[in-house]
Amino acid sequence: MKPTHKLILAVLLALFWTAPAMAGHFNVINKLPKTNPCKGIKTEYADLNKAVDDIIKSAVIGDIDKTVDAAAGDNKDTVDVEINAATDAASYQKAMHDAGTTRSDDEMQGWFDNAVAHTDLVEKDGKKKVMVFVFCGDHLKARLLDGNGARTIIHELVHAQLYAMSARGVPPDKEPYKEDDDSKFIEDQGRTGHADEHNSDFNKIVERLTNLFTDEKKKAEKKTTEKKGGGSTKTTSDKPKKHGKAPTEAATAPTGGVHFSIGVIGGDRRDDRRDDRHGDAPFGGANNNSGFKMH
Prior knowledge:
With about 300 residues, the chain is an alpha/beta fold. It is about 45% helix and about 15% strand. It has nine helices and six strands; from the N terminus they run αβααβααββααααββ.
């Protein structure tokens, strides 16, 4: 066999054997503009965009995909998860209406004004997908300055994981975790850590996936350093920036000031999550809990 033919065969075999690892039913798409659309947010936006790309290529997505597959059983439908940015409430409302949301403009205005990010399950022409929006503004700026860009995205993907299960037919009573707010947990986290993870179970998943992502990055950076002949590795993305007195979750007490809490928007499966009203709103109840909210 000629050397050229051997090379072609090796490439084809490599593609064949790696294909299964690339396959999945939780399909995350980065739709953040490459050019920074957020006024008042500088280099941190590029860090956020890179974090999204890095997360998509990381073991985090495979982990979520396996979790959704295990819950969904025989349903093998692929669910798209789009990560977008909105510069104002009007553009957010239009994008969501175009995607098939039944949420009201007032609801979406409130989420844009008070949240860092928000996640929702939408349906159009019989096709369901998950929409994640990060909102340009001071809330997002503060979070990025504190080096929490990747964690923000991972948090929203934990919400998206539940919505992907819902889109694939998993009923609420079969969900492996919930997104309801635990006031005691949030109060404790407001004193000691992240006050945005809703409850202990939700927090454990965000922590585990965040650690999975950061550990993977550290290993990759170490290999890169070793190939270059040693030396320390400096990482510019997802590191706290030098800044003034921007609010942080860890420094905020629940009795005063500002702290982050996250909520999630869901589809029709969310109606029974916060109270006893069922089916009050078409394709999703009036209550939802997705996005980093400012209190």
